[in-house]
Amino acid sequence: MALKIEQDWGRFREIVRGKVKQNLRKYIVHSELIGKKGKDLVSIPVPQVEIPHFVHSPEKLGGVGQGQGEAGTPIGVGEGDEDGHAGNQPGQHILEVELTLEELAQILGEELELPNIEPRGKKNIKSLSGRYTGIHTAGPESLRHTRRTFKEALKRQITSGSYDPINPVIIPITEDKRYKLRETVEEPAYNAVVIYMMDISGSMGSEQKEIVRVESFWIDTWLRYQYRDIETKYIVHDAVAREVDRDIFFRVRESGGTIISSAYKLCRKMMEERYPSDEWNIYAFHFSDGDNWSRDDTHECIEMLEENLLPKVNLFCYGQVESPYGSGQFFYDLEDHLKEKENLVLSKIANKDAVYDSIKQFLGRGG
Amino acid sequence: MISSELQKYIEEIESRAREYGLDFFDVIFEVVDFEEMNMLASYGGFPVRYPHWRFGMEYERISKSYTYGLHKIYEMVINNNPSYAYLLKGNTDIDQKLVIAHVYAHSDFFKNNFWFSETNRKMLDEMANHAIRIRRYIDKYGYEEVESFIDICLSIEDLIDIHSPFIKRQFDKKNFLEVDEGERKPVSKLRSPSEYLEDYINPPDFIEWQRKKGEDEKIKKKKFPEFPERDVLLFLLENAQIEEWQRDVLSMIREESYYYAPQIQTKIMNEGWAAYWHSKILTEKIVTDREIIDYADHHAGTLSTRPGVLNPYKLGIELFRNIEDRWNKGKFGKDYQECDDIEAKRNWDMNLGLGRDKIFEVRRFYNDVTFIDEFLTEDFCREHGLFTYAYNRSTGMYEIESRDFKKIKEKLLFMLTNCTRPIIEIVEGNYMNRGELYLVHKHEGVDLKLDWAKDVLKQIFKIWKRPVHLETVVDGKLRVFTAEGGKKGKEVEVESFLVK
Questions:
Q1: Residue contact B309–A79, C-beta within 8 A
Q2: I want to staple A256 with a disulfide (CB 3.0 to 4.6 A). Which of A52, A173, A238, A283 is the partner?
């Protein structure tokens, strides 16, 4: 039975989504969300969706209870009544809304007005997926279609006259059995890879890393929603660069100088060896405090970006995290030289609250 | 579908219930699965309600607590003639039997309790009607338009006068108003020694001004509404400048409020009565040996208590049993009250056997307030470990406050009065002669929840369209909250000031 409540329930969920949207800025830096993946549900405490009434202040009202205990014994107070009319009990439920990360990404997209990504036309890549499309007379028992089988048996019994409406016993025999038929369909797929690069030189403190963590979580969420499947790669660098896994990426703490070109070289190598740009949609993000070792190295970076990286990636984002030690010069150097490049986005992230705007800058470009 | 087995139980329990003297409407049982049950519960028991998100919110809450195993609804019964009752599919036989008996007792209560006497017994149809009318408005004016108006109505749905269905006014208000109108009081003049000084001693401007002032005062005296009005919804229906469809929606919400009010007013009695009878009927007539443990388990679950929650089933059934016992033994009246021999009091038994008759009388005439007021005794409070609790600011927790009988009773009565809600009256519908609305909260020692109160004021402003004031007491000081603004898309704002 289709429940009539569906409409009201749907409407309620819509209102809740609206609330989440309104408060998205707050949730974006909500570190509890971070670390969730895929179809996991995230539980978000939402400011009350409620109908206000004139009621007594629960704290001033108090109440009557029963049980043991001296005066002054703390008690748990809450509602225990099923019909919702029990306004005589203090305590309210905080609304915990469960959203899938996909829904969250949708909301993020709507609120930040992120354009849908148009994958670069590489439709030559196919992925295979199975679907049940038909019925067959042979197959594994696990795929037996019970209703169709009984229908066949019923037809056979009626035609053969062995069906007794007063005592309707239907026994399927082997010929009656029907099986679901699985067909393999080819679907175009887009491959996408996200390459995160992070500066872990001494001047990047834990606060800066937290910002990167939050930001990369949201970028992941959005790109995962846009592409069915993405690969993520992590590169850390100080004076040298190396590829690491996700855990290490966020935990490692090195000290030392900053040679940004090392990371770009590794990134270039990765793309050449594993992710040819005619097969992959490539997204590269680089976070740093912008305090590069030397001018020469900065020039090398700019050259590399211009010649090797930018022509191949869908998007290259440079996020400069503000740190008390860094000069932030790299940002201006990039701005000066590569301003007119369409798939390069530069963003300054002053603190956690700025993540929201930075995401908008990065992903607002589409691509 | 009712299985033949279930039908057998129903018939047997029905005839047993009649033997005990229960007098109920016909009851139509339906078996539903848990999803349908949760849906029906969200709709307040009715299969068809108007569309609104709050039912969806209720559904989310109920189905979540069902999924997490926190709560399961076994039964639901609607005050209607015939009564409709829903049984949960897949319950054990003993659960169904208990629930069936429980339902018959509820139906008896609906039919016979005085406070239900004015409720619409064809509410099932009426609710469906409301749904159709509101859907029609939605088609015509748009979903959000209607929804946001319903939001407003729901915020004030409880501002009704729960006793008004039973009041017959002694006089016709309109005639009463006209009595001292008509002639104007002459303006008193100073005596002038001669005629030519008249205009100097009694300047015509001044006399005219005096006359006008007198008239203004008379208008002011003519109150509107003449008496403080608790049925805020009625007042708005009659006087607010709203569209016809809005008036219709408001009137439907009001009607539903009046329909539900007696159920809130008799929660303890109603549940107590039903628990009393399912227990009596099942243990004396129905339960088989092998069912007794499961029965006891379920029954005990229904009556379980936690310190911070007053279980209406428990309080109700124990009070009914207490009353029955006292009237059986004659533990009431002057002699018993004045006896100060504890031992004699404990063993008091005059073999009157009036208990059964008494509880039937109680179920006919009382509601929770009068029930508690008359039958909650000090002994009972002690025996059942009742206490009052209060919020402790320094720990942020609720703590047991007192086990003093007077305090417990006072608090209970306070909480039950006016369906647990504060009393709000419209005192002026033309405040300051500016068409503003002036509400007064009859403060009885407990402040309002202020953030909500402000939101409600904003909602009333949207209906009244002129400033709305609420007089209340905050932390011992008289305060007036005013909702106004809202012009040219401006937000409605609430401000407050202290009254000296």
A1: yes
A2: A238
